[in-house]
Write a structure and sequence with these properties.
By secondary structure, this protein is α+β, with helices and mostly antiparallel strands. The protein has two domains: 2-82, Orthogonal Bundle (Arc Repressor Mutant, subunit A); 88-123, no CATH class. It is built from five helices and five strands. The protein has helices at residues 2-12, 19-31, 38-46, 54-66, 103-113, and strands at residues 71-75, 78-82, 88-93, 96-100, 119-123. α1 (2-12) runs antiparallel to α2 (19-31). The longest helix is centred in the first third of the chain and has 13 residues, at 19-31. It starts with a helix and ends with a strand.
């Protein structure tokens, strides 16, 4: 479902659906719920497009972010991809990231800090 939404938004915004961009959509649709690092995504893309650079990947990911299709966050020094663009909490344990939706907690944080909340990362042991 994410892939179809992303392809539609890219087309509507006038972006070309290059083979590399299509592969990125496919990979994010397949592993995006695992909150992959950009390094992980690039490794997957390079299996089919060995000449693709990190710079090209990053510019495409930034385009997807600008279109509201994903968010980015840092974990252990790596940039991770977040496909869930609704305000939520990421529970992080042992390098794994699990989406936790609790609108009440998000609203309490929003009221406490006086700003909109996109994403809250919580490290758990």
């Amino acid at each position: 479902m994410w892939k179809e939404k992303a392809l539609k938004r890219l087309k509507e915004s006038g972006y070309k659906l290059t083979p590399q961009r299509l592969k990125l959509m496919e990979i994010l649709d397949r592993i995006g719920n695992e909150h992959p690092s950009l390094t992980d995504v690039l490794r997957e893309i390079k299996a089919e497009f060995p000449t693709m650079s990190f710079s090209t990947l990053y510019s495409n990911v930034l385009t997807l972010k600008e279109l509201g299709l994903l968010e980015l966050f840092s974990l252990d020094g790596e940039t991770r991809v977040e496909l869930n663009t609704e305000p939520h909490i990421n529970l992080i344990s042992g390098g794994k990231v699990i989406d936790f939706n609790d609108p009440e907690i998000i609203e309490r944080i929003r009221k406490k800090i006086g700003r909109d909340v996109k994403l809250v990362n919580v490290l758990v042991e």
